[in-house]
């Protein structure tokens, strides 16, 4: 599967993605966000795992394995566009807001939201066709959930 995603990411006109490729691309984007501030903390890794469990209905071991595959993919990927392209091709526009919410959750997982994280979320939202206003609303929903 990793080989097929590398092929998808290298192909400028990718074939339709399957759900495994989409979830791996999402996991890699979450890892990229968590690493964007130069720190990749255990709290961020655990939060990514929890998001993967909730989104995919998988267990903790499978989530950790998916995150580790995503870490390797993120290490090799030159840019963020490749992940967002796979997500944009594989997720309906109305469902992309959940991707933005997941990004905001990871950005706030370590208790400190950095400029690098804000920039990456803004870029990802733009590439996914989500405007700044809707991204801000997604951030507010995440903050409200975290405060509860």
Automatic annotation (TrEMBL):
SUPFAM superfamilies linked to this entry: TerB-like
Superkingdom as given in the UniProt entry: Bacteria
Pfam families in the record: TerB
Stretches assigned to the Co-chaperone DjlA N-terminal domain: 23-140
Coiled-coil regions, chain positions: none
Protein name, as recorded: TerB family tellurite resistance protein
Source organism (scientific name): Sedimentimonas flavescens
Organism lineage: Bacteria, Pseudomonadati, Pseudomonadota, Alphaproteobacteria, Rhodobacterales
């Amino acid at each position: 599967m990793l080989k097929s995603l590398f092929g998808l990411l290298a192909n400028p006109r990718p074939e339709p993605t399957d759900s495994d490729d989409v979830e791996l691309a999402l996991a890699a984007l979450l890892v990229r966000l968590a690493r964007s501030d130069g720190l990749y903390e255990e709290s961020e890794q655990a939060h990514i795992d929890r998001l993967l469990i909730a989104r995919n209905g998988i267990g903790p071991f499978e989530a950790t394995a998916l995150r580790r595959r995503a870490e390797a993919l993120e290490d090799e990927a030159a840019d963020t566009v490749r992940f967002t392209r796979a997500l944009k091709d594989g997720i309906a526009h109305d469902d992309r807001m959940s991707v933005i919410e997941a990004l905001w959750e990871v950005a706030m997982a370590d208790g400190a939201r950095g400029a690098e994280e804000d920039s990456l979320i803004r870029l990802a939202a733009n590439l996914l066709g989500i405007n700044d206003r809707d991204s801000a609303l997604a951030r507010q929903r995440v903050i409200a959930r975290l405060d509860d």
